[in-house]
Amino acid sequence: MANPMKIRAASKDGVTEIKILMNHEMETGQRKDSSGAVIPAWYINEVKVELAGKSVMTAEWGPSVSKNPYLAFKVKGGKAGDKVVCTWTDNKGDKRTDEAAVS
Amino acid sequence: MNTNTKRFDRRQILKAASGLGIMAFGASMSPMAFAAWNKTAFEAKSLSDVYGALGAGSPSNSGDVQIIASDIAENGAVVPIQAVSKLANTEQISILVEKNPSALVCLFNLTADVLPEVTTRIKMGQTSNVTVLVKAGGKYYTATKEIKVTLGGCGG
Predict the structure, then answer these.
(1) Smallest Cβ distance to A64: which of B30, B97, B117?
(2) pLDDT digits over A9-34, tens only?
(3) What is the DSSP letter of A86?
(4) B29 or A85, which is more confident
(5) For residues A8 and A2, what is the distance between their CA atoms, to the nearest angstrom?
(6) What pLDDT score does A59 carry?
């Protein structure tokens, strides 16, 4: 099971800034190990973010998003205490969901 | 560094974005399904193949789309990049790297509540043009910026 994400969300002047740092190898499938065998691709390909129970953004990613992906964006609305829920799915079907409260 | 001169006025963006929310837009967009991963687009090698797979046709260049990133990335494995759109009704923001093995890096579907700017970190195999593709009001627009990479990020 993958490691937890770090999610920070802060509301200011009616806009909530959400920052997410995920924990994932994001292996491209281009690299080779020491014996020359190709390391199979392993990366997050779908991300979904909800704020206060409402889906605000979905993302589709390829393998060229950096290792331990970082994502930041801003949403109108949201207040302190609202829940931010982020779910990712990788190309092996592994999933992880984490949540944090808006501060 | 020219990053600072490109910084936009946050109040303007807010104003533009709140206008955007009022437009008859929210209702059709809100129950957004978890879109299936677009395999064809992510496997496409060239920019035009990606545009084709996304149904973008031949997007036009727009000054309202901005890429905020430094001109030189020391480490191609971690290139911080911010994509900003000033276009009304921005629905989708994608980041493409022309010389990566597959051009499309990431694609964000934004609801009407999200301000049209996303920040993330991408990998770049070598110095390349980076293109941000924005879908706004059903039309596609791009902006391109060259980022020099001194150390590759794709197994190099």
Answers:
(1) B97
(2) 999 998 999 999 999 989 888 888 88
(3) E
(4) A85
(5) 19
(6) 93
B99: Cβ–Cβ under 8 A, 6 or more apart, which residues?
A: B124, B125, B126, B127, B128, B129
| Closest partner CB to B109 (pick from A58, A72, A76) | A58
pLDDT score recorded for residue B156: 45
Q: How far apart are CA A15 and CA A100, in angstroms?
A: 16
pLDDT of residue A103 exceeding 70:
yes
**pLDDT reading at A66 higher than 70:** yes
Tokens of B42: 């992510």
Mean per-residue pLDDT, A36-44: 90
Q: What's the pLDDT at B12? A: 59
Contacts for B103 with CB less than 8 Å, ≥ 6 apart: B44, B45, B46, B47, B49, B50, B96, B97
Residue B5's Cβ-count burial label (10 Å; 0-12, 13-18, 19+) is: exposed
B130 to chain A, minimum CA–CA distance in Å? 13
- B105/B35: higher pLDDT: B105
| Nearest residue, CB atoms, A15 vs list B37, B111, B115 | B115
Note whether B119 contacts A72, CB cutoff 8 Å: yes
Rounded to whole angstroms, the Cα distance separating B54 from B134 reads: 11
Q: Residue B148 has which token pair?
A: 């020099």
Chain B positions in Cβ-Cβ contact with residue A59 (cut-off 8 Å): 106-109
Output the pTM of the full model.
0.80
Q: In angstroms, rounded to a whole number, what is the distance separating the alpha carbons of residues A89 and A56? A: 17
CB contact under 8 A, A60 and B38: yes
Q: Is the dihedral of CA A55, A59, A60, A65 positive or negative?
A: negative
Question: Residue B27 pLDDT more than 60?
Answer: no
